[in-house]
Every structure is written in structure tokens, then in C-alpha cells.
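May I ask for a single protein's sequence together with how it folds?
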Amino acid sequence: MKADPRFLKLPKSFWAYVRLIGQQCGYTQRGTGRLLVPEKEHVQSKFEELGLGAESLDAVLPNGANIWDMLTNYFVYRAEIAIDHIKPSLMNADEARVEFDRLKRELRPSCPLPMNKQKGKKRAPAYLTCIVNMIVEDAVNKAECDYDPRALTTITNNGLPIRTFARRLDGAFPSVVNPVAVWEIKEYYYTTTFGSRVAGGVYETLLDGMEIEELTESENIEVLHYLMVDAYYTWWECGKSYLCRIVDMLHMGYADEVLFGREVISRLPELATEWSKGLPN
């Protein structure tokens, strides 16, 4: 899933409205399971409760658009993309296992196929991670790739480190040093509640995106950044508010693309092929 160009490069103040409205008005319509598109009067009353000027909703953005009109367009878009694109893309464990088995037969991978961290009957391959690894390996023709970085991502210039990211990411191509692309994988097939560990995964990716944004702005060095998530129950049944945060994060420019479930299978081969072509000779 790519960001909708209409909502890219908006000022950070716009996203302050988006987050605040989500906090005060909620994210879902009660009883429907659909994402909320709030009414202006509701938002105005919530702003007034906080002592904020509701008239600011009628201010104009730098691009000349009315703030409330842009907010409405964004909330409608977010609700529609969630029900039309994200929901049908998400898989459960059984569906992910079928895709894992199929790709393993077809691609005959030599890349790592790690197990999940569950115990007992839930112990199984980490399906989404394995799917990502197999697809990347095939797309880059088994070129060098760090499928499990056990080090912090480092960017260098003239042989000297200029940035070292705060976190270890889940994958880097071709290497954790000066990567073309990095990615995070959030699969929670056996999670029964939406806990702090899942929420923390969203904020980890936000931190990564902010560091990459600073790198681009300060050093004019670009690193492609992707988030890949799956588990229908976790994200759709329990975590719609965090799906909203992921869509927001994408449009704030903190990820180049977010791949939901089956989208990894359809989109990642093209992306990984592009990464390999972007390598210097």
C-alpha cells in the first residue's frame, strides 16, 4: 500500500489535528466495526472541552486547502482503504501457513526460515517473516541480503559513520551498513489481545521513520523503509485504532510503503527487484 498523494507533504500541524481528533472522538463507529468519519460539530465540541479554538478547523493549510475539508477527505479515505484494501489483505495463521508452504515448494529457498517464539501447538515457522525472506531471496537472485540483522543500521560517508539508528531492524538489503532498503515485520497470528507489545511495534516503526527522515533532510541520503504486518484478528478485530496510526504514519512520510498480509506476496517481488537494480555497479 502506497500513500495517497493528496495527503503527502502536509504540515505536521495537520497530523496534530488527526491524532487529537482520534484521541477525543475515537476511531470506530460503535456497533458497525467501520472506521469513524467524525462530524464537525462533534470535533468542535471536543476542542472546546479542551479549551482549544474550534475556529482553527476553518483555517487554511499552506497548499490553500481548508483544514476541515482536508481532514474530512482524509478520514473518508482512511475508512474506505481500511475496509476495501486492508481488511481483505490480512491473513490468519492457517491462511499464512498455506502461502508459506506453497512458496517453500515453488522457490526452494536457502534463506533463513525462522520459527516463531510460541510454545507447544503454536510453535511453527514465523510465516510472514519466512514469506518475506523467500520472496526477497528469489527477487534479488540470491544476492547478498541481511535477513536477520543482529546489529544497528549504520550509514557511513567516506568510510566514517554518520548515523547509527537506535534499533535493530528485521531486514536490510544488501547489508545493515549503508542499506538500500530496511524493513520491519509485525506478525501476531497467535496473539489473543491487543497488548502493549503490539502497540510498541507501531511506535518502533515510527521511531525508525523519524530517524530516516532526519538522515534524508540533514545528509541527503535516502534509505527505503517498509513495514509489513499481518494477523487478521490482531489488527482488524482488536487493533483498528493502530491500523489508523499505521496509515497516518505512512502519509506522514515515515514509511515508503506498508504491506498488509497478502500484499507482501503480490507487491514485495516488484519492490525487491527494484532494490537490486538500485545497487551501485
Q: What stands out?
A: The chain is about 45% helix and 10% strand.
